[in-house]
Amino acid sequence: MSDLNDIVAVGLNLKPKTLLSAYAQGVFPWPSPGLPLLWHCPQKRGVLDFADLHVGKRLKQYLKKADWTYTINREFKAVIDACSERGEEGTWIIPEMKEAYTRLHELGHAHSVEVWNGKQELVGGLYGVDVAGTFAGESMFHREDNASKAAILFVVSCLKKAGREFMDTQVITPHMEALGGKEIPRTVFRKRLKQIQEKIKVLGPTHPFSGDGVYHYQDLSISIE
């Protein structure tokens, strides 16, 4: 984050109650070296509206041919560890963050999806937080080409099947932009959160990441033809 106006709080802790309250308001922690813990709610929020999802022809062909399978919450620790391996680039997924999100996972609020190759090697994945009817993608990784994009599309598939209409990406990366991600004003994003929370009061919560099986390309609910 480069804009100080994106920072809405400083300090606090990473206890589950704090994190759940923050995410329900569209706020998330993003540590910076040498500073107290910073909490962000970007003025320009990254989202992926599923109505805008774009999967290019080459990517569709690649996914169709790839010998990959997908799982949910099978290797959360392995996924968050892999996401933190950034080499000289450094990472904001410091040990304290790993511990906090692993605890959220144990409580059923943080989730991972895994991409496996034919040798049953973990080649890609993504983890995030599902709170108050909204999933916020935190980080992803790949060890084979396009495996992180496959992880995103699998998450989209899970969310769409649960009746969700968008995914909170927090910021827009080239990956997300290529898939149709965009920025919306913070006020609009928080209004959408409130609308979703009001809907939950009437209809009850949805649970996108309750599956425990092994999924395949044909299970991706994307336009693939």
Provide a descriptive summary of the structure in words.
The protein is α+β, with helices and mostly antiparallel strands and 225 residues long. The chain has one domain (43-219): Leucyl/phenylalanyl-tRNA-protein transferase, C-terminal domain (Aminopeptidase, 3-Layer(aba) Sandwich), CATH 3.40.630. It has 7 helices and 10 strands. It has a 4-stranded antiparallel sheet, with helices on both faces. A hairpin with an 8-residue loop joins strand 2 and strand 3. It is globular. The model has no long low-confidence stretch (mean pLDDT 93).
What topology does this entry show?
Blueprint: E1 7-10, H1 16-24, E2 28-29, E3 38-40, E4 44-49, H2 57-65, E5 69-72, H3 76-83, H4 95-106, E6 110-116, E7 122-131, E8 134-142, H5 147-161, E9 166-170, H6 174-178, E10 182-185, H7 186-203
Antiparallel strand pairs: 1-3, 2-3, 4-9, 4-10, 5-6, 6-7, 7-8
Question: How helix-rich are the residues, as a percent range?
Answer: 25-40%
CATH class category:
Alpha Beta
Low-pLDDT runs: none
Q: Could you say what the CATH architecture is?
A: 3-Layer(aba) Sandwich
What's the helix-strand series?
A: EHEEEHEHHEEEHEHEH
Gross morphology:
globular
Q: How many β-strands, per DSSP? A: 10
User: Helix/strand-derived class?
Assistant: alpha+beta
Per CATH, the superfamily is: Leucyl/phenylalanyl-tRNA-protein transferase, C-terminal domain
Q: DSSP helix count? A: 7
- Which oligomeric state applies? single chain
**Strand order within the widest beta sheet:** 5-6-7-8
N→C terminal distance: 38 Å
Q: Could you please say which CATH topology applies here?
A: Aminopeptidase
Any idea what the radius of gyration is? 17 Å
Arithmetic mean of pLDDT: 93
Sheet with most strands: 4 strands, antiparallel
Task: Tell me the number of structural domains.
Answer: 1
